[in-house]
Every structure is written in C-alpha cells, then in structure tokens.
Write a structure and sequence with these properties.
With 284 residues, this protein is of the alpha+beta class. The chain is built from six helices and four strands. The chain has helices at 2-15, 28-152, 164-170, 193-205, 223-243, 268-274; strands at residues 178-180, 211-216, 251-257, 276-280. It has a four-stranded mixed sheet with strand order 1-4-2-3. The relative contact order is 0.08.
Length: 284
C-alpha cells in the first residue's frame, strides 16, 4: 500500500512542471531532454522575435517608401503647379505683348493715316499752287502778248481766250489736253492722233487763239536732261499741229522738265502721269 502511494506521489510530482522540486525526481536523460526542449523553445522564441523585428523593419521601410512616394508625388504636384503658373504667366505676358503690339500697330496706322492725309493735303495744296502758277503764267503770257501787239501796232483781237464750255461744245476731244509718253521717249503714240487733229481744227477755226505746249518729264533724270526731254516732247506736238495746218504764230512750245508734276509718289503710275505735254489754252 505504501508503495502505491509513493508511485502516485511521483506521478503527481512529475505532472507539475512548474514546481521547483520537479528536477529532484528526473533522471539525467530527462533533464537533458528538458534542457534541449528549453533551448529549442528559446531558439524558437528568438527566431520569432527576429521575424517580428524583421517584419517591423519591413513595415518601417514600407512606411518610409510610402512617405518618400508621397513626398515625391507632392513635389511633382508642386512642380506641375509651378509650371502651370509659369505657363499662365507666359500666356498673360504674350497676351499683353499682343495687346501692346496691337496698340502700337493701331497707333502706327493712325499716324500713317494722319501722315497720308497731311501728304494728300500737301499734294492738293501743291496742285492748287501749280494750277494757280499756270493760270498766272498764262495771264502773264497773254498780257505780254497784248503788250507786244501794242508795241508792234497790231490788232489786240489776235489774243483770243476760250472757256471750257466753248472747247467742249466745239469738240469733246478738246477736253483731253495732255499727251503722255513712254519712259525716256518723245514720240507721239497713234492713239493721240485724233486728239491732236481736233486741237488743230479748233485753232485753224479760231485764228486769234494762241496755245502753249508745255513739255514735262518725271524726276528720274537730271534737271538739264529733263528740260531737254520736255522740250523735245512739246516740239513734237508743235510739229504735228503745224503739219495739220495750224499757223506757227498760234503755237508756242516750252519745257518745265520735272518741275511741274501732277503725281508725287515714286512709282510707275505717278511717273507715267508726269511724262506728258500739256496743251494750255488762254482760259477765261
């Protein structure tokens, strides 16, 4: 009976792992196995602690990567905002530049318009001045002719004056009183034959009327050359009128060279208008 109690006590004691006196009843082999189990348990615990530490480090690294990604994303967003603002500022600058350029061009157009208006006014004034000069010159010639006739004791009725209406009624072609030429030429074109013939007929029918043939040139030659060219042009019309029977005393040829332009631009249209011979009647 006592033996059974001892065995039961041993079994009870062997089941109590946490009792300090457990090792008193273990054999060396059991203690070795228990120590080995403790080492393995400690190794597993350290391994688990290591795995947890590695997991914690990986988590920290992931947090760092996410933070770096967030920082880079924020930097990209800030850069995009900066670039967008730069583009907006550049668009505003270009718009302002275009506005300033439009204002400058509009100002230039207005100034050019004023300049052209002033130039046109100057040309009109110059044309009026030249017309007045021609009128005064015609009056001077008529008066000189009157004086000469008085000195010569001739009849003053030889100084005849006409009106535009009189010329128009006599022949509509008499309204055309300018003969135009090609550059550096003085030969008369065929299309002016009828006009010259009309003037010749009128002069023959009105023997008291004396005309002046005024030769002109554009401004591309020297003054002396232009005077000579204008004289050749007026002489050509003079010869044509005389050939049609006009008395020489009714026609006088002069040359003004480039001194009396009717167009002032430096282009072919203006030059063509200035290459001419004007048939000047004493008008009243």
């Amino acid at each position: 009976m006592g033996r059974y109690l001892v065995v039961l006590l041993i079994l009870l004691l062997s089941g109590c792992n946490n009792l300090p006196w457990r090792g008193w009843f273990e054999t060396p082999a059991q203690r070795a196995r228990a120590e080995e189990m403790r080492r393995q348990e400690e190794a597993r615990r350290q391994q688990e602690a290591k795995r947890q530490e590695e997991a914690r480090q990986r988590l920290q690294e992931e947090v760092k990567r996410q933070e770096e990604a967030r920082r880079q994303q924020e930097a990209r967003r800030q850069e995009e905002l900066r670039q967008e603002e730069a583009r907006r500022q550049e668009a505003l600058r270009q718009e302002e530049a275009r506005r300033q350029e439009a204002v400058r061009q509009e100002r230039a157009r207005r100034e050019e318009l004023v300049r052209r208006q002033e130039e046109e006014r100057r040309r009109e004034e110059e044309a009026r001045r030249q017309d007045e000069a021609r009128r005064l010159e015609a009056a001077r010639r008529i008066e000189e002719r009157r004086r000469q006739l008085l000195e010569d004791g001739e009849d003053l009725s030889l100084v005849g004056m006409v009106t535009e209406e009189q010329l128009r009624k006599a022949n509509p072609l008499l309204v055309e009183r300018s003969i135009y030429y090609e550059f550096d030429r003085y030969d008369i074109k065929h299309n002016y034959a009828a006009i010259i013939a009309a003037h010749a007929k009128f002069l023959i029918e009105h023997p008291t009327v004396k005309i002046f043939l005024e030769g002109n040139a554009d401004d591309r030659g020297s003054p002396d050359y232009n005077i000579a060219l204008g004289q050749r042009r007026s002489n050509g019309v003079h010869g044509a009128l005389l050939a049609l029977g006009v008395p020489a005393k009714q026609v006088e040829s002069v040359s003004y060279g480039a001194e009396r332009p009717v167009a002032f631009d430096q282009d072919e249209v203006s030059w063509a208008k200035n290459r001419r011979t004007d048939i000047a009647y004493p008008m009243r």
